[in-house]
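Here is the promised in-class demo. Please do not try to memorize the tokens; focus on the logic of going from shape to residues.
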């Protein structure tokens, strides 16, 4: 298998571990997913830069 997972339902956690993909658990709507990287950290850095709790329609993630 080539490549690394970027976004997956929680039941595919073993693929993230098998490919040693670093990421975090996020929520999209009512569902929980594993996401590569640090999307929540990125969202927080954007909010710090603009000085308020910016809502990004193209990035609807939450903890």
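The designed amino acids, position by position:
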């Amino acid at each position: 298998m080539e490549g690394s997972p970027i976004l997956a339902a929680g039941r595919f956690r073993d693929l993230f571990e098998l490919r040693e993909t670093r990421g975090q658990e996020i929520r999209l709507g009512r569902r929980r997913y594993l996401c590569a990287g640090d999307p929540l950290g990125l969202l927080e850095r954007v909010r710090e830069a603009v000085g308020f709790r910016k809502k990004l329609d193209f990035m609807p993630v939450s903890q």
